[in-house]
Amino acid sequence: MKKMYQKDWFGIPFQSFGKMSSHKLADSEFYSNFYKEFFKNYSSYDDLKEDWKKSKLELAEWIAGRISKGKVLSIGSGLSFMEKVMHENYKSLEVHVQDYASVSLKWIQNVLPKNQIHFVGNKIQIDDFNIVFLSNVDYSIPKETLAEILNDIQNYMHPNSELIIMNTTTIFSDLKLSTIQKTKNIIKYILTILKLYSKGQFWGWQRTPEEYREILSESNLQFIEDGVIYPGGVKHYFIVGEKLKNI
Ligand SMILES: C[S@@+](CC[C@H](N)C(=O)[O-])C[C@H]1O[C@@H](n2cnc3c(N)ncnc32)[C@H](O)[C@@H]1O
After folding, report:
1. What residues form DSSP beta bridges with 3?
2. Is residue 145 part of a domain?
């Protein structure tokens, strides 16, 4: 596991809407403030970059390709572009979204029926989702909380349904640092103390495939498969777990 820091997102510097902290993890309040700023700069899905949309479109197609019909829930759906594509292109799928920064769901509210949009705090009343997925979300969740969330999600899942985690943050190489990297880190540390360098906002963690397999097992999910895909040419790690029958 390796900590990640970030200074901007979608071209919006975090300093433009608040103070960055390299110690406090970006939480729902941080994401809500970010999305408020985001919507001042972008007014519809048309404003988003084509290569970003291509990657999300291919990822959506990959997920949709795993079932012929049924209910799909996306946790941490954010702008929900993938979910819009699934809803519009796969009529046999009933697509649901949820994000703890509800302000992020502004655009998808014009696309999905109301009962398919879930706000944190309102209990999801459905217990037969065929696929639940987290796309580029887990990085922001501490390991223990992630295992708790994955355990809880199974209350909403149909027996033998799939839980999919996918992201662009997984690290595949050895976590041991090279001497050059160690030296760079020491220099950054000194510059940080001298207030000459800011690491940026504490954004979350990069994890290894082994850590994801461990999290799945701690969450009582049966490991099905993991691997790498390249939607829109962007490397994504994915791991699929199945809900155990006796849960
Ligand atoms: C990088 S965005 C990814 C959005 C979208 N899934 C995608 O792939 O484009 C991460 C999203 O996860 C949401 N998030 C982070 N932790 C969450 C949690 N514990 N529960 C629900 N949403 C969460 C954030 O608010 C943010 O919108």
Report:
1. 205
2. yes
